[in-house]
Amino acid sequence: MNTASHNPYALRGTLIDCDAVAGTAVGNETLRVIEDGALIIEGGRVTARGPAADVLTGDRAHLPVHDYSGRWLLPGFIDSHIHYPQTDIIASFGSQLLEWLERYTFPAEASFADPDVARETADFFLQELFRNGTTSANVLGTVHAHSADAIFEAARRQGMRLIAGKVMMDRNCPEAIQDTPESGYRDSRELLERWHGVDRLRYAITPRFAPTSSDEQLRRTAELAREFPDAYLHTHLAENRNEVAWVSELFPWARSYMDVYDQYGLVRERSVFAHCIYLDDADRRRMADTGAAIAFSPTSNTFLGSGLLEYRDARATGIRVGLATDVGGGSSFSMFRTASEAYKVSCLNGTPLSAASLLHLATRGSAEALDIADRVGSLDADKEADIIVVDPAATPLTARRTAPATLEESLFALLMLGDDRHIETTYVGGRIVHERN
Ligand SMILES: [Zn+2]
What we know:
α3 crosses α4 and α12 crosses α13. The protein is α/β, with parallel strands linked by helices. Helix content is 38%, strand content 23%. The protein has 2 domains: 9-76 and 377-435, Urease, subunit C, domain 1; 77-333, Metal-dependent hydrolases (TIM Barrel), CATH 3.20.20. It binds zinc ion (ZN).
């Protein structure tokens, strides 16, 4: 099926999304459900939403309808932190963060010196996102400038809302994948000027993490961030205990790991920090005050044995938090699997997350963390039409588990059991980019 995005049409099915949350306490999230609902899609946007009996009347009664009765229409998932060059090292055995970088990540990223590898991987990566129902992402490239060009070009062809950046790192990694303070600044600036604000694309200034940037590189990074306050800043923070100890050796003047970035002026609005497991109250308070966000990466945090994010504390302090797969440290492209892991982490922390909290985290919460909630993350009229069709009965077990349950119970079960088989169709900007075979 090929639908030109400029011709209006309707989608019909059970509409499920999350309301905006009042306050900062986890547990305030609410589901909005319209059992037999319809959306009108026009020019790549949702222009009407409501019960089918109300929406498909008058002039709209004659619009073509994509009828997904019995299935769920959800806002596309939003992945707030993921590495596309690590697609081919997902599920690699046996290391914690620092050894894992040396053993798997750096060699994989070195192979991106070949622009053809970057282009081929970028296309595969986006298709893998779409088959898992992810329609927006905040993506790291490699140190190579052409790695950012490759993912932006691929996303632009798909009409996708995507944030990305070239990694900056000038020490504590193999020489072949180092830049310098000057080349990192210059290449990032050129990419930013080429891509930031083009169609649905935005640029993220992307130092890998504090240990792989010299003081001089962090200083130049901050200069760029000051020059382009509406660009993103994307990096890692306080993921692993050995990493935190190393940062305190490398930056003895800093009060904490977070304080390293803060002293350079990198903790600000549109700064997105992956992990943030080892923060103290002062760190959290500072991140909340500045409007910085956290990318919660539960499958990565358990897979690499990093630790458990205190998600409720972060939210209670007022920090915006998005959900993230962190592939390849994370072990799945699926936001269902990622939500399932977030639930387990919340149980280990003693306060289980509800279906509404988990769906919010994967959609509107990620949109808020990435400062794109005015455009995506819900099914509201005027939002961009990034929508997924979820088939709760795609497998014998989920068909059996969801048939007799309430919708909220079914949604929770599917968040625990779902994967790419449950994504029937993915719409990006009102255009179908994936249909399950
Ligand atoms: Zn990461």
